[in-house]
Amino acid sequence: MSKAGFDLQKRIAHATRHVQELDVLYKISRILAAGTRQKQALAEVLDVLDSELGMNRGTITLLVPDDTEIRIEVAHKLSQEHSRKVRYRMGEGVTGRVMQTGKAMIIPKVSEEPLFLNRFERWNVTKEEMSFICVPISIGQDAIGTISVDCVFDKAASLDEDMRVLSIVASMIANDVRTRREESLLRQELEDENLRLRHELEDRFRPENIIGNSNAMRDVYRAIQQVASSDTTVLIRGESGTGKELVAHAVHYSSTRDKGPFIKVNCAALNENLLESELFGHEKGAFTGAIQGRKGRIEEADGGTLFLDEIGDFSSVTQVKLLRVLQERQFERVGSNRTLETNARILVATNRNLEEAVDNGTFRQDLYYRINVFPVFLPPLRDRKDDILLLADYFVERYSKKMNKDIRRISTPAINMMVAYHWPGNVRELENCVERAILLSTDGVVHGYHLPPTLQTSDATDTIGTGSLLEKVNLFERDIIVDALKRSNGNLAASARDLGITARIIRYKVKYLQIDHKRYHRKRG
Protein backbone atom coordinates (compact mmCIF):
# COMPACT_ATOMS: atom_id res chain seq x y z
CA MET A 1 0.00 0.00 0.00
CA SER A 2 1.33 3.44 -0.92
CA LYS A 3 2.06 6.04 1.74
CA ALA A 4 -0.86 8.19 0.52
CA GLY A 5 -3.22 5.23 0.78
CA PHE A 6 -1.97 4.41 4.27
CA ASP A 7 -2.43 8.00 5.42
CA LEU A 8 -5.96 8.05 3.98
CA GLN A 9 -6.83 4.81 5.78
CA LYS A 10 -5.43 6.24 9.01
CA ARG A 11 -7.49 9.42 8.65
CA ILE A 12 -10.64 7.38 8.00
CA ALA A 13 -9.98 5.22 11.07
CA HIS A 14 -9.38 8.33 13.16
CA ALA A 15 -12.58 9.95 11.91
CA THR A 16 -14.54 6.76 12.59
CA ARG A 17 -13.08 6.60 16.11
CA HIS A 18 -13.96 10.26 16.65
CA VAL A 19 -17.58 9.67 15.60
CA GLN A 20 -17.71 6.60 17.85
CA GLU A 21 -16.42 8.64 20.80
CA LEU A 22 -19.04 11.35 20.24
CA ASP A 23 -21.73 8.67 20.16
CA VAL A 24 -20.40 7.20 23.41
CA LEU A 25 -20.36 10.61 25.11
CA TYR A 26 -23.94 11.21 23.97
CA LYS A 27 -25.05 7.85 25.41
CA ILE A 28 -23.30 8.55 28.69
CA SER A 29 -24.93 11.99 28.95
CA ARG A 30 -28.33 10.32 28.45
CA ILE A 31 -27.56 7.77 31.18
CA LEU A 32 -26.54 10.46 33.69
CA ALA A 33 -29.56 12.61 32.82
CA ALA A 34 -32.01 9.73 33.36
CA GLY A 35 -32.02 10.29 37.13
CA THR A 36 -31.51 6.66 38.12
CA ARG A 37 -29.69 5.70 41.30
CA GLN A 38 -26.04 6.75 41.31
CA LYS A 39 -24.55 3.25 41.48
CA GLN A 40 -26.77 2.02 38.66
CA ALA A 41 -25.98 5.02 36.46
CA LEU A 42 -22.22 4.68 36.97
CA ALA A 43 -22.36 0.96 36.27
CA GLU A 44 -24.13 1.68 32.97
CA VAL A 45 -21.41 4.24 32.09
CA LEU A 46 -18.72 1.57 32.54
CA ASP A 47 -20.76 -0.86 30.41
CA VAL A 48 -20.82 1.64 27.52
CA LEU A 49 -17.07 2.32 27.77
CA ASP A 50 -16.42 -1.42 27.65
CA SER A 51 -18.79 -2.34 24.83
CA GLU A 52 -18.26 0.73 22.59
CA LEU A 53 -14.62 1.73 23.11
CA GLY A 54 -13.02 -1.43 24.45
CA MET A 55 -12.10 0.22 27.78
CA ASN A 56 -12.17 -2.91 29.90
CA ARG A 57 -12.65 -3.51 33.60
CA GLY A 58 -13.56 0.10 34.38
CA THR A 59 -13.60 1.20 38.02
CA ILE A 60 -15.03 4.32 39.63
CA THR A 61 -13.90 5.28 43.13
CA LEU A 62 -15.20 7.99 45.43
CA LEU A 63 -13.74 9.60 48.52
CA VAL A 64 -15.58 8.64 51.71
CA PRO A 65 -17.19 11.54 53.66
CA ASP A 66 -14.42 11.81 56.27
CA ASP A 67 -11.72 12.17 53.54
CA THR A 68 -9.63 9.31 54.91
CA GLU A 69 -10.26 6.47 52.46
CA ILE A 70 -11.08 5.95 48.79
CA ARG A 71 -13.74 3.29 48.24
CA ILE A 72 -14.89 1.46 45.13
CA GLU A 73 -18.26 2.85 44.07
CA VAL A 74 -18.69 0.55 41.05
CA ALA A 75 -16.37 -1.90 39.27
CA HIS A 76 -17.16 -3.42 35.90
CA LYS A 77 -17.75 -7.17 36.07
CA LEU A 78 -16.65 -7.39 39.69
CA SER A 79 -18.84 -8.58 42.57
CA GLN A 80 -19.99 -6.04 45.18
CA GLU A 81 -18.52 -8.23 47.91
CA HIS A 82 -15.07 -8.04 46.31
CA SER A 83 -15.48 -4.31 45.67
CA ARG A 84 -16.27 -3.60 49.32
CA LYS A 85 -13.00 -5.22 50.39
CA VAL A 86 -10.84 -2.95 48.23
CA ARG A 87 -9.77 0.35 49.83
CA TYR A 88 -7.11 2.91 49.00
CA ARG A 89 -5.53 5.53 51.21
CA MET A 90 -4.63 8.95 49.85
CA GLY A 91 -1.38 8.62 47.87
CA GLU A 92 -1.49 4.81 47.86
CA GLY A 93 -1.02 3.17 44.46
CA VAL A 94 -1.93 4.76 41.15
CA THR A 95 -5.47 5.52 42.31
CA GLY A 96 -4.31 7.13 45.55
CA ARG A 97 -1.65 9.15 43.69
CA VAL A 98 -4.19 10.49 41.17
CA MET A 99 -6.50 11.47 44.05
CA GLN A 100 -3.65 13.16 45.88
CA THR A 101 -2.27 15.12 42.92
CA GLY A 102 -5.50 15.63 40.97
CA LYS A 103 -3.64 14.70 37.77
CA ALA A 104 -4.36 11.81 35.39
CA MET A 105 -1.85 8.98 34.95
CA ILE A 106 -1.17 6.66 32.01
CA ILE A 107 0.61 3.38 32.73
CA PRO A 108 1.66 1.86 29.36
CA LYS A 109 2.78 -1.42 30.99
CA VAL A 110 1.42 -2.29 34.43
CA SER A 111 4.16 -4.91 34.92
CA GLU A 112 6.78 -2.15 34.90
CA GLU A 113 4.98 0.26 37.26
CA PRO A 114 5.76 -0.20 41.02
CA LEU A 115 2.82 2.06 41.96
CA PHE A 116 0.36 -0.36 40.34
CA LEU A 117 -0.94 -2.52 43.22
CA ASN A 118 -3.20 -4.94 41.29
CA ARG A 119 -5.70 -5.02 44.18
CA PHE A 120 -8.30 -6.79 42.02
CA GLU A 121 -5.82 -9.53 40.96
CA ARG A 122 -7.50 -9.75 37.56
CA TRP A 123 -4.27 -9.67 35.55
CA ASN A 124 -2.83 -12.71 37.33
CA VAL A 125 -5.33 -14.85 35.39
CA THR A 126 -4.85 -13.55 31.83
CA LYS A 127 -1.04 -13.14 32.04
CA GLU A 128 -1.41 -10.52 29.29
CA GLU A 129 0.48 -7.25 29.40
CA MET A 130 -1.98 -4.47 30.19
CA SER A 131 -2.13 -0.70 29.94
CA PHE A 132 -3.88 1.33 32.64
CA ILE A 133 -5.42 4.82 32.59
CA CYS A 134 -6.65 6.63 35.72
CA VAL A 135 -8.31 10.07 35.62
CA PRO A 136 -9.47 12.20 38.61
CA ILE A 137 -13.13 13.08 39.09
CA SER A 138 -12.95 16.65 40.37
CA ILE A 139 -15.36 19.30 41.58
CA GLY A 140 -13.51 22.58 41.16
CA GLN A 141 -9.97 22.00 42.45
CA ASP A 142 -10.95 19.11 44.74
CA ALA A 143 -10.65 15.51 43.56
CA ILE A 144 -13.62 13.52 44.86
CA GLY A 145 -12.88 10.25 43.08
CA THR A 146 -11.31 8.56 40.07
CA ILE A 147 -12.34 6.64 36.96
CA SER A 148 -9.90 4.08 35.61
CA VAL A 149 -9.85 1.53 32.77
CA ASP A 150 -7.40 -0.97 31.36
CA CYS A 151 -6.85 -2.50 27.95
CA VAL A 152 -4.56 -5.04 26.34
CA PHE A 153 -1.16 -3.50 25.68
CA ASP A 154 -0.84 -2.25 22.08
CA LYS A 155 2.25 -0.35 21.02
CA ALA A 156 0.25 1.46 18.34
CA ALA A 157 -2.66 2.41 20.61
CA SER A 158 -3.24 6.10 21.32
CA LEU A 159 -3.52 6.14 25.10
CA ASP A 160 -3.52 9.94 25.16
CA GLU A 161 -6.71 9.92 23.06
CA ASP A 162 -8.31 7.42 25.47
CA MET A 163 -7.28 9.58 28.41
CA ARG A 164 -8.89 12.63 26.77
CA VAL A 165 -12.21 10.77 26.35
CA LEU A 166 -12.00 9.44 29.89
CA SER A 167 -11.36 12.97 31.20
CA ILE A 168 -14.54 14.19 29.51
CA VAL A 169 -16.50 11.30 31.05
CA ALA A 170 -14.95 12.13 34.45
CA SER A 171 -16.17 15.75 34.12
CA MET A 172 -19.67 14.52 33.31
CA ILE A 173 -19.63 12.20 36.33
CA ALA A 174 -18.33 15.00 38.56
CA ASN A 175 -21.19 17.24 37.50
CA ASP A 176 -23.69 14.44 38.18
CA VAL A 177 -22.17 13.72 41.62
CA ARG A 178 -22.18 17.43 42.51
CA THR A 179 -25.83 17.77 41.46
CA ARG A 180 -26.83 14.71 43.48
CA ARG A 181 -24.96 15.95 46.54
CA GLU A 182 -26.51 19.42 46.27
CA GLU A 183 -29.97 17.86 45.97
CA SER A 184 -29.27 15.57 48.91
CA LEU A 185 -27.99 18.49 50.99
CA LEU A 186 -31.00 20.63 50.06
CA ARG A 187 -33.35 17.76 50.89
CA GLN A 188 -31.63 17.27 54.24
CA GLU A 189 -31.80 21.00 54.96
CA LEU A 190 -35.51 21.02 54.14
CA GLU A 191 -36.11 17.99 56.35
CA ASP A 192 -34.14 19.60 59.20
CA GLU A 193 -36.02 22.87 58.73
CA ASN A 194 -39.33 21.03 58.68
CA LEU A 195 -38.39 19.18 61.86
CA ARG A 196 -37.21 22.41 63.50
CA LEU A 197 -40.43 24.24 62.61
CA ARG A 198 -42.53 21.32 63.80
CA HIS A 199 -40.72 21.26 67.14
CA GLU A 200 -40.95 25.05 67.31
CA LEU A 201 -44.71 24.87 66.82
CA GLU A 202 -44.98 22.09 69.39
CA ASP A 203 -42.90 24.13 71.85
CA ARG A 204 -45.00 27.18 71.10
CA PHE A 205 -48.20 25.37 71.99
CA ARG A 206 -46.65 23.40 74.85
CA PRO A 207 -48.11 24.77 78.08
CA GLU A 208 -45.50 26.29 80.36
CA ASN A 209 -47.09 24.68 83.42
CA ILE A 210 -46.60 21.10 82.16
CA ILE A 211 -43.25 19.28 82.13
CA GLY A 212 -42.57 16.52 79.60
CA ASN A 213 -41.15 15.88 76.13
CA SER A 214 -42.23 12.27 75.60
CA ASN A 215 -44.30 11.32 72.57
CA ALA A 216 -47.30 10.62 74.80
CA MET A 217 -47.15 14.15 76.23
CA ARG A 218 -46.67 15.70 72.80
CA ASP A 219 -49.99 14.11 71.86
CA VAL A 220 -51.54 15.83 74.89
CA TYR A 221 -50.04 19.19 73.86
CA ARG A 222 -51.44 18.83 70.35
CA ALA A 223 -54.88 18.00 71.78
CA ILE A 224 -54.76 21.10 74.02
CA GLN A 225 -53.76 23.28 71.07
CA GLN A 226 -56.59 21.88 68.93
CA VAL A 227 -59.39 22.37 71.47
CA ALA A 228 -58.28 25.51 73.33
CA SER A 229 -59.64 28.05 70.85
CA SER A 230 -63.18 26.61 70.91
CA ASP A 231 -65.86 26.37 73.62
CA THR A 232 -66.12 22.59 73.28
CA THR A 233 -66.59 20.59 76.47
CA VAL A 234 -63.41 18.67 77.29
CA LEU A 235 -63.25 15.41 79.25
CA ILE A 236 -59.79 14.99 80.81
CA ARG A 237 -59.11 11.37 81.69
CA GLY A 238 -56.24 9.81 83.55
CA GLU A 239 -55.14 8.17 86.77
CA SER A 240 -54.94 10.13 89.98
CA GLY A 241 -51.81 12.27 90.16
CA THR A 242 -51.20 12.57 86.41
CA GLY A 243 -51.91 16.31 86.29
CA LYS A 244 -55.45 16.64 85.00
CA GLU A 245 -55.88 20.02 86.68
CA LEU A 246 -52.76 21.30 84.91
CA VAL A 247 -54.30 20.35 81.56
CA ALA A 248 -57.49 22.20 82.49
CA HIS A 249 -55.40 25.29 83.37
CA ALA A 250 -53.55 24.96 80.04
CA VAL A 251 -56.80 24.77 78.05
CA HIS A 252 -58.20 27.83 79.85
CA TYR A 253 -55.10 30.02 79.56
CA SER A 254 -54.59 29.04 75.90
CA SER A 255 -58.14 30.06 75.02
CA THR A 256 -59.84 33.39 74.36
CA ARG A 257 -61.30 33.14 77.88
CA ASP A 258 -57.88 33.51 79.51
CA LYS A 259 -58.85 36.92 80.94
CA GLY A 260 -61.95 35.42 82.55
CA PRO A 261 -62.11 33.45 85.82
CA PHE A 262 -60.93 29.87 86.20
CA ILE A 263 -63.11 28.16 88.81
CA LYS A 264 -62.32 24.69 90.12
CA VAL A 265 -64.67 22.37 92.03
CA ASN A 266 -63.49 19.08 93.51
CA CYS A 267 -66.70 17.07 93.32
CA ALA A 268 -65.36 14.15 95.37
CA ALA A 269 -64.76 16.35 98.42
CA LEU A 270 -68.43 17.35 98.89
CA ASN A 271 -71.61 15.43 99.68
CA GLU A 272 -74.66 15.71 97.42
CA ASN A 273 -76.35 18.67 99.18
CA LEU A 274 -73.18 20.70 99.58
CA LEU A 275 -72.12 19.99 96.00
CA GLU A 276 -75.46 21.21 94.63
CA SER A 277 -75.20 24.41 96.63
CA GLU A 278 -71.55 24.83 95.65
CA LEU A 279 -72.33 24.51 91.95
CA PHE A 280 -75.68 26.29 91.59
CA GLY A 281 -75.71 28.60 94.62
CA HIS A 282 -78.65 29.05 97.01
CA GLU A 283 -81.16 31.63 98.23
CA LYS A 284 -81.45 32.85 101.79
CA GLY A 285 -83.40 30.35 103.90
CA ALA A 286 -83.21 27.60 101.27
CA PHE A 287 -81.98 25.18 103.95
CA THR A 288 -80.86 25.21 107.56
CA GLY A 289 -77.82 27.44 107.87
CA ALA A 290 -78.51 29.41 104.69
CA ILE A 291 -78.55 32.78 106.47
CA GLN A 292 -77.89 34.67 103.23
CA GLY A 293 -77.98 34.06 99.49
CA ARG A 294 -74.83 32.88 97.71
CA LYS A 295 -73.66 32.67 94.11
CA GLY A 296 -72.71 29.22 92.87
CA ARG A 297 -69.51 28.30 91.06
CA ILE A 298 -71.33 28.24 87.72
CA GLU A 299 -72.27 31.90 88.16
CA GLU A 300 -68.77 32.82 89.27
CA ALA A 301 -67.31 31.16 86.18
CA ASP A 302 -69.47 33.16 83.77
CA GLY A 303 -67.30 34.36 80.88
CA GLY A 304 -64.51 32.05 81.99
CA THR A 305 -63.99 28.33 82.62
CA LEU A 306 -65.52 25.95 85.18
CA PHE A 307 -63.42 22.86 85.94
CA LEU A 308 -65.28 19.97 87.55
CA ASP A 309 -62.78 17.49 88.96
CA GLU A 310 -63.84 13.90 89.65
CA ILE A 311 -67.16 14.17 87.85
CA GLY A 312 -67.58 10.43 88.20
CA ASP A 313 -68.65 11.00 91.83
CA PHE A 314 -71.75 13.05 90.92
CA SER A 315 -75.09 11.80 92.29
CA SER A 316 -77.89 11.02 89.82
CA VAL A 317 -79.81 14.20 90.79
CA THR A 318 -76.79 16.44 90.24
CA GLN A 319 -76.07 14.68 86.96
CA VAL A 320 -79.52 15.67 85.66
CA LYS A 321 -79.01 19.32 86.63
CA LEU A 322 -75.52 19.41 85.11
CA LEU A 323 -76.85 17.92 81.88
CA ARG A 324 -79.31 20.84 81.63
CA VAL A 325 -76.49 23.31 82.14
CA LEU A 326 -74.47 21.68 79.36
CA GLN A 327 -77.37 21.49 76.91
CA GLU A 328 -79.38 24.64 77.61
CA ARG A 329 -76.89 26.79 79.56
CA GLN A 330 -79.58 27.30 82.21
CA PHE A 331 -79.94 26.50 85.93
CA GLU A 332 -81.69 27.61 89.15
CA ARG A 333 -80.20 28.30 92.55
CA VAL A 334 -81.23 26.03 95.38
CA GLY A 335 -84.51 27.40 96.81
CA SER A 336 -85.24 29.63 93.79
CA ASN A 337 -87.57 29.39 90.78
CA ARG A 338 -85.72 32.06 88.79
CA THR A 339 -83.87 30.63 85.81
CA LEU A 340 -80.33 31.90 85.31
CA GLU A 341 -78.11 31.55 82.28
CA THR A 342 -74.37 30.98 82.09
CA ASN A 343 -71.67 31.53 79.48
CA ALA A 344 -69.07 29.44 81.31
CA ARG A 345 -67.05 26.87 79.43
CA ILE A 346 -67.09 23.55 81.26
CA LEU A 347 -64.13 21.20 81.55
CA VAL A 348 -64.49 17.93 83.44
CA ALA A 349 -62.04 15.31 84.67
CA THR A 350 -62.20 11.84 86.14
CA ASN A 351 -59.99 8.90 87.00
CA ARG A 352 -62.92 6.47 86.88
CA ASN A 353 -64.04 4.12 84.13
CA LEU A 354 -67.12 6.02 82.95
CA GLU A 355 -68.04 3.35 80.41
CA GLU A 356 -68.29 0.79 83.20
CA ALA A 357 -70.30 3.27 85.31
CA VAL A 358 -72.73 3.75 82.41
CA ASP A 359 -73.14 -0.01 82.06
CA ASN A 360 -73.94 -0.51 85.75
CA GLY A 361 -76.30 2.49 85.84
CA THR A 362 -74.38 4.79 88.21
CA PHE A 363 -73.62 7.35 85.51
CA ARG A 364 -76.16 8.68 83.01
CA GLN A 365 -75.56 7.67 79.43
CA ASP A 366 -76.81 10.98 77.99
CA LEU A 367 -74.47 12.94 80.29
CA TYR A 368 -71.58 10.69 79.31
CA TYR A 369 -72.13 11.44 75.61
CA ARG A 370 -72.51 15.16 76.37
CA ILE A 371 -69.19 15.47 78.21
CA ASN A 372 -67.27 13.05 76.02
CA VAL A 373 -67.11 15.46 73.07
CA PHE A 374 -63.34 15.90 73.11
CA PRO A 375 -61.52 13.49 75.44
CA VAL A 376 -57.90 14.14 76.42
CA PHE A 377 -56.07 11.13 77.84
CA LEU A 378 -53.20 11.79 80.26
CA PRO A 379 -50.73 8.90 80.29
CA PRO A 380 -49.57 7.46 83.63
CA LEU A 381 -45.97 8.21 84.57
CA ARG A 382 -44.92 4.57 84.03
CA ASP A 383 -45.80 5.04 80.33
CA ARG A 384 -43.69 8.18 79.95
CA LYS A 385 -40.35 7.07 81.39
CA ASP A 386 -38.52 9.65 79.28
CA ASP A 387 -40.10 12.42 81.37
CA ILE A 388 -39.09 11.11 84.79
CA LEU A 389 -35.70 12.84 84.83
CA LEU A 390 -37.16 16.11 83.50
CA LEU A 391 -39.81 16.08 86.22
CA ALA A 392 -37.32 15.08 88.91
CA ASP A 393 -34.93 17.91 87.90
CA TYR A 394 -37.84 20.37 87.95
CA PHE A 395 -38.91 19.30 91.44
CA VAL A 396 -35.31 19.35 92.68
CA GLU A 397 -34.94 22.97 91.53
CA ARG A 398 -38.33 23.92 92.95
CA TYR A 399 -37.87 22.44 96.42
CA SER A 400 -34.21 23.44 96.63
CA LYS A 401 -35.30 27.07 96.36
CA LYS A 402 -38.18 26.51 98.74
CA MET A 403 -35.94 24.90 101.39
CA ASN A 404 -32.99 27.20 100.63
CA LYS A 405 -30.68 24.28 99.81
CA ASP A 406 -28.01 23.97 97.10
CA ILE A 407 -28.87 20.62 95.52
CA ARG A 408 -26.66 20.16 92.46
CA ARG A 409 -27.72 16.81 91.03
CA ILE A 410 -29.40 13.43 91.41
CA SER A 411 -27.03 10.48 91.74
CA THR A 412 -27.01 7.68 89.18
CA PRO A 413 -28.31 5.02 91.62
CA ALA A 414 -31.21 7.34 92.54
CA ILE A 415 -31.98 7.89 88.86
CA ASN A 416 -31.95 4.13 88.24
CA MET A 417 -34.40 3.62 91.12
CA MET A 418 -36.74 6.30 89.77
CA VAL A 419 -36.71 4.86 86.25
CA ALA A 420 -37.25 1.28 87.49
CA TYR A 421 -40.15 2.16 89.80
CA HIS A 422 -43.74 1.82 88.48
CA TRP A 423 -45.12 5.02 90.13
CA PRO A 424 -48.69 4.07 91.09
CA GLY A 425 -49.16 7.62 92.43
CA ASN A 426 -47.83 9.12 89.19
CA VAL A 427 -46.37 12.66 89.10
CA ARG A 428 -47.78 13.55 92.51
CA GLU A 429 -45.90 10.62 94.08
CA LEU A 430 -42.68 11.61 92.29
CA GLU A 431 -43.01 15.15 93.60
CA ASN A 432 -43.45 13.90 97.16
CA CYS A 433 -40.43 11.60 96.82
CA VAL A 434 -38.21 14.41 95.56
CA GLU A 435 -39.40 16.75 98.32
CA ARG A 436 -38.48 14.12 100.91
CA ALA A 437 -35.06 13.57 99.29
CA ILE A 438 -34.28 17.31 99.25
CA LEU A 439 -35.17 17.49 102.91
CA LEU A 440 -32.81 14.60 103.79
CA SER A 441 -29.87 15.57 101.54
CA THR A 442 -26.86 17.10 103.32
CA ASP A 443 -24.18 17.06 100.59
CA GLY A 444 -25.91 18.74 97.66
CA VAL A 445 -26.75 15.40 96.01
CA VAL A 446 -29.93 13.33 95.99
CA HIS A 447 -28.79 9.77 96.74
CA GLY A 448 -30.70 6.55 96.44
CA TYR A 449 -30.93 6.17 100.23
CA HIS A 450 -32.80 9.50 100.39
CA LEU A 451 -35.71 8.01 98.45
CA PRO A 452 -38.58 6.16 100.17
CA PRO A 453 -38.05 2.44 100.91
CA THR A 454 -40.59 1.47 98.24
CA LEU A 455 -38.20 2.75 95.58
CA GLN A 456 -35.11 1.15 97.10
CA THR A 457 -36.32 -2.46 97.04
CA SER A 458 -37.45 -4.14 93.84
CA ASP A 459 -39.35 -6.80 95.80
CA ALA A 460 -41.42 -4.13 97.50
CA THR A 461 -42.24 -2.37 94.26
CA ASP A 462 -42.69 -5.33 91.94
CA THR A 463 -39.99 -3.80 89.72
CA ILE A 464 -36.64 -5.17 88.66
CA GLY A 465 -33.80 -3.12 87.20
CA THR A 466 -33.72 -4.69 83.74
CA GLY A 467 -32.44 -1.67 81.81
CA SER A 468 -29.97 -2.39 79.03
CA LEU A 469 -26.31 -1.46 79.26
CA LEU A 470 -26.92 1.41 76.81
CA GLU A 471 -29.74 2.81 78.97
CA LYS A 472 -27.57 2.67 82.08
CA VAL A 473 -24.64 4.31 80.28
CA ASN A 474 -26.94 7.05 78.97
CA LEU A 475 -28.23 7.72 82.50
CA PHE A 476 -24.67 7.92 83.80
CA GLU A 477 -23.57 10.28 81.00
CA ARG A 478 -26.63 12.45 81.49
CA ASP A 479 -25.87 12.71 85.21
CA ILE A 480 -22.30 13.88 84.55
CA ILE A 481 -23.24 16.37 81.80
CA VAL A 482 -26.09 17.92 83.81
CA ASP A 483 -23.73 18.35 86.75
CA ALA A 484 -21.22 20.15 84.48
CA LEU A 485 -23.95 22.35 82.96
CA LYS A 486 -25.11 23.39 86.41
CA ARG A 487 -21.55 24.36 87.37
CA SER A 488 -21.14 26.41 84.17
CA ASN A 489 -24.64 27.94 84.23
CA GLY A 490 -25.60 26.17 81.01
CA ASN A 491 -22.51 27.22 79.00
CA LEU A 492 -21.81 24.35 76.59
CA ALA A 493 -18.23 25.39 75.76
CA ALA A 494 -17.31 25.75 79.43
CA SER A 495 -18.93 22.42 80.25
CA ALA A 496 -16.98 20.74 77.45
CA ARG A 497 -13.71 22.12 78.82
CA ASP A 498 -14.71 21.01 82.31
CA LEU A 499 -15.31 17.44 81.07
CA GLY A 500 -12.28 17.34 78.78
CA ILE A 501 -14.27 16.86 75.56
CA THR A 502 -14.90 18.93 72.46
CA ALA A 503 -17.80 21.34 72.05
CA ARG A 504 -19.07 19.25 69.13
CA ILE A 505 -19.30 16.13 71.31
CA ILE A 506 -21.16 17.86 74.12
CA ARG A 507 -23.63 19.42 71.65
CA TYR A 508 -24.29 15.95 70.24
CA LYS A 509 -24.70 14.44 73.72
CA VAL A 510 -27.03 17.24 74.89
CA LYS A 511 -29.25 16.68 71.85
CA TYR A 512 -29.12 12.86 72.07
CA LEU A 513 -29.84 12.76 75.82
CA GLN A 514 -32.55 15.46 75.52
CA ILE A 515 -30.93 17.85 78.01
CA ASP A 516 -32.30 21.41 78.07
CA HIS A 517 -29.06 23.31 78.68
CA LYS A 518 -30.84 26.68 78.32
CA ARG A 519 -32.72 25.92 81.49
CA TYR A 520 -29.52 26.13 83.51
CA HIS A 521 -28.59 29.35 81.72
CA ARG A 522 -31.92 30.89 82.70
CA LYS A 523 -31.32 29.83 86.27
CA ARG A 524 -28.30 32.11 86.42
CA GLY A 525 -30.40 35.05 85.21
Identify the CATH architecture of the largest domain: 2-Layer Sandwich
Number of domains: 3
Q: Considering the protein shown, what is the CATH homologous superfamily of the largest domain? A: GAF domain
Structural category: alpha/beta
Shape: elongated
- Alpha carbon gyration radius: 38 Å
Number of strands: 17
Proportion of residues in extended strands? 15-25%
CATH class of the largest domain: Alpha Beta
Largest sheet: number of strands, sense, barrel closure: 6 strands, antiparallel
The proportion of residues forming helix, as a percent range, comes to 40-55%
Total of DSSP H or I helical runs spanning 4+ residues: 22
Side by side, the strands of the main sheet go 3-2-1-6-5-4
> Between the first and last Cα atoms, what is the distance in angstroms?
97 Å
Low-confidence stretches: 458-466
The CATH topology label of the largest domain is Beta-Lactamase
Mean pLDDT over the residues? 82
Features:
single chain, 525 residues, Beta-Lactamase, Helicase, Ruva Protein, domain 3, 17 strands
How would you characterize this protein structure?
There is one protein chain. With 525 residues, the protein is α/β, with parallel strands linked by helices. It is built from 22 helices and 17 strands. It has three domains: 179 residues, GAF domain (Beta-Lactamase, 2-Layer Sandwich), CATH 3.30.450.40; 149 residues, P-loop containing nucleotide triphosphate hydrolases (Rossmann fold); 143 residues, Helicase, Ruva Protein, domain 3 (Orthogonal Bundle), CATH 1.10.8. The strands form five sheets. A six-stranded antiparallel sheet has the order 3-2-1-6-5-4, with helices on both faces. Strand 12 and strand 13 form a beta hairpin.
